[in-house]
Amino acid sequence: MNVYDVLNLFGGLALFLFGMHTLSSALEKLAGGKLESWLEKATSTPIKGVLLGAIITAVIQSSSATTVMIIGFVNSGLMKLSQAIGVIMGANIGTTATSWLLSLQSIGGTEGFSILNIFKPTTFTPVLAVIGVFLIMFTKADKKKTIGMIFLGFAVLMFGMDAMSDSTAGLADNELFCSIMTMFSNPLLGVLAGALLTAVLQSSSASIGILQSIAVSTGQITYSVALPILLGQNIGTCVTALISSVGANKSAKRVAIVHLYFNVIGTIVFLSLFYLINAFVDLPFMQESLNSVGIAVIHTGFNVLATALFLPFTKQLEKLACLTVRDNPNEEANAMPMLDERILNAPSVAIEQCKNVAYKMAALTKKTLMMSMDIITAYDPKKAQEVVDNENTIDIYEDKIGSFILKISSKDLSVNDSQLVSDLLHTIGDLERISDHAVNIVESAEEMHSKKVMFSDEALREVNVMIKAVSEILDMSISSFINSDVALAKEVEPLEDVIDQLRSELKARHIRRLRDGKCTIELGFILQDFLTNLERVSDHCSNIAVCLIQIKENSMDTHEYMNELKKLDKSEFMDEFNVYQDKYKLPRME
């Protein structure tokens, strides 16, 4: 093996890693937000968690990526440790799909045409590369381009694999290499070598790919050599999760520890039983050479058996992790759920998590405004302080979500995801402004309380009509946002027009009372501010509803949508407008 072979080996490894990254990213992008919804379903039983973890990892071709995502979910409070354990076990099984893909290079047939040769990478990989480049360069649809990236990523991965195999072919007759391989038949050295290689590459798929390429090109990899190295590679892949858990909360750290314990204990048990059996039976195949298919069989077999071993003991595994990472008495028990940058490598999943946190922000915003409107009619200093505290919390929500969205925007997003993050950014801005108006309303209530002034009974009845209308539009907009209910969102705009009319009429009525000497100028200013805040709240509710409609229907911009709505659906719009107008009719002036 000369210097050119070494360069080809590293070049092949570079192609392999790039192809793996491209394939993984494109598959995750194609799956979109479904990954997050799949993970959320892993809440009932460990078996369901194992299945979902295996499927997701097979899709995105990386157990490390799945584990890091799980750490992000647990750190954000979106998943419990008990739910994560099954997914981690499934991820170890799912990652073996890569070794089976790579084992296709072992397929062979007779010279010339053979059905088997059709399935060899050297036959179909160039075709996939051509199709992939064509889809990327000559199609406009985002989905087709993503499929092209999948084909091209797989092709580059296979070309890298072939390059590694070709560069190591000369090792077959190398005595030094053969002696080193014999040394790795020692279980401890083999496990250590596999763990170190995987830890350095940060990818078990890459380290297994190297082992498979050497096995194919040299024929010097025996079962006694491959077994401990493969089990060590499973331990080495835990390094990524352990690094990712640094700075996370205790529950997220426990996820990484569970991943480590699962592989370490599984390796100890598997090797102990296997070599114990071999000591008594002397298994004849241990010194036989194996190909990439045999490596894939061992890889899958170990992870399936380890999962079967640990699945009945998930609670004990959880307790062990809790004993290792103990509770911190200084850590807040009810910390605010926030976003975790560990899942930014899966943009669609990050967007879904972003939406979940935005839903919590929306619910808190609704509660805050409703509380402030209660205070204007019945002042309560404790509630007033709670409104102010909530507004500060909502500001933190906006800052965290907004910063996270900007980081997501820097990733390679589909057109739909780009529109979604843009509209989500606008929505959290509207929610934050609603909370600001809630504080403004509290300030008006505090002014009335301190000056010992209050609305007349007549004015109070009129104000309550406005409050009820704003309460309904707030409930409609927040509910439509949280439940993605487009039909409900379309009912917001007619009510917003009614609220605009109510504000104008209430202002006119106040002027009449002022002229008749039934109201003071000072109280009039407070009423004016209060009505303005309510009217602006309804405007923000309208914006939230329109953003949802834009996301679901790929509509035009906000103002254009509202104009088109009133033109195209004038009859339906006016029917709803009239219903709300009758519902929120002001009482007669005395």
Short description:
The protein contains 26 helices and no strands. The protein has helices spanning 3-31, 34-40, 46-60, 63-75, 81-94, 96-102, 115-118, 121-138, 142-167, 175-183, 187-201, 204-218, 223-236, 238-244, 250-281, 292-310, 314-324, 347-377, 381-409, 415-450, 457-483, 486-489, 492-515, 521-553, 558-568, 570-583.
Q: Which characteristics define this entry?
A:
590 residues; mainly alpha; Methane Monooxygenase Hydroxylase, Chain G, domain 1; 2 domains; elongated
Describe the structure.
The chain is an all-alpha fold and 590 residues long. The protein folds into two domains: 322 residues, no CATH class; 240 residues, Phosphate transport system protein phou homolog 2, domain 2 (Methane Monooxygenase Hydroxylase, Chain G, domain 1, Up-down Bundle). Helices cover 79% and strands 0% of the residues. It contains 26 helices and no strands. Helix 5 crosses helix 15. It is elongated, with a radius of gyration of 32 Å. The N and C termini lie far apart (102 Å). About 1% of the residues have low confidence.
